[in-house]
Specification:
The protein is α+β, with helices and mostly antiparallel strands. It is built from seven helices and 18 strands. Strands 1, 2, 3, 4, 7, 10, 11, 12 and 13 form a nine-stranded mixed sheet that branches.
């Protein structure tokens, strides 16, 4: 999120606000609400949730927007998949496009099919998504009745676990890489079972270091804003990036703030490419550092004026 030339950076508190997004609103609706609650335009979300979905939606506030690319993007979802019916949007918000009239598979077949999705797999982005083709979001093409070829993408499913099966619905927990569409998993699972399927319900329970226990509903956050306590809800940047923390002394901080490298010495033992959160004596995040050749730590991102 950039600033216009000459525009001063918002000097207010920075961090991450973790929203428990309700169903029926967009991720951008939550960004707009947070801008009102916090009195700043500098708010952005870390990973879109579909309007149907609920759960963890981390929002980066003020200078924390500079840290979005350094936050772990792995995610955990609870999902309810309905077998036997496919929809045009692959979820319960869409129109039915096919219905299976035969007997649905048993639990053993469902569990075996689920296990085949673990690891690295290819996934084709759905038409109803924000992925762009020729500069145009796919969902805009879909709303015009158009369908285009999409290139498959490699995603990683760390685990996919059957929680409960009561045909036609199954509850599944998915731990996955960023860029995973659980809607597509639901469709692909249904087709693997020969009966079709769609995503009936979805709740994100974890996004990188942010968990559902850290999240608050819009009603709670609105009340906090009205009582002048909304900024108490911010997760500190050093905690939000989820990286190992390196306390730096005054001279090291001075060098890092001005873009200079520092020697790792005995501070780190990871291989080249390891990343760290450089903090001052108060524990405030100053910069993201990466270990380069010859044991030198160089700044990838500096939060000027922090600490």
């Amino acid at each position: 999120m950039g600033r216009r030339r000459g525009q001063r950076e918002d000097p207010g508190p920075i961090g991450f606000l973790v929203v428990d997004k309700p169903s029926g609103v967009t991720s951008h609706d939550m960004v707009d609400a947070a801008r009102r609650w916090l009195g700043t335009r500098a708010v952005g979300h870390l990973g879109t949730l579909d309007p149907l979905a609920t759960g963890v939606l981390p929002l980066a506030v003020r200078r924390a927007t500079k840290l979005a690319s350094f936050v772990d993007g792995s995610k955990t979802y609870w999902s309810r998949i309905r077998l036997g019916v496919e929809t045009d949007t692959l979820d319960a918000d869409g129109e039915e496009v096919s219905r299976y009239e035969g007997a649905l598979p048993d639990e053993t077949a469902v569990a075996e099919a689920l296990s085949s999705f673990e690891g690295d797999i290819e996934q084709v982005p759905p038409m109803y998504s924000a992925v762009k083709q020729g500069g145009v979001p796919l969902y805009k093409l879909a709303r015009r009745g158009e369908e285009v070829e999409r290139e498959p993408r490699t995603i990683h499913i760390e685990s996919i676990r059957l929680i409960r099966y009561a045909a036609p619905d199954l509850e599944v927990e998915v731990q996955c890489s960023p860029g995973t569409y659980v809607r597509v998993l639901a469709q692909d699972l249904g087709r693997a079972l020969g009966c079709g399927g769609h995503l009936a319900d979805l709740r994100r329970t974890q996004n990188g270091p942010f968990t559902i226990e850290m999240a608050a509903t819009p009603e709670v956050l609105q009340e906090a804003a009205e009582n002048g306590k909304i900024e108490e809800r911010l997760v500190a940047p050093a905690e939000g990036v989820g990286l190992p923390q390196l306390p730096l002394d005054t001279e090291q901080l001075r060098r890092v703030i001005h873009g200079g490298e520092i020697r790792s010495g005995a501070l780190v033992r990871d291989p080249v490419g390891g990343r760290y959160a450089a903090v001052d004596r108060a524990g405030d995040l100053i910069a993201i550092l990466e270990l380069g050749p010859a044991g030198m730590l160089h700044p990838l991102r500096v939060l000027r004026g922090a600490g």
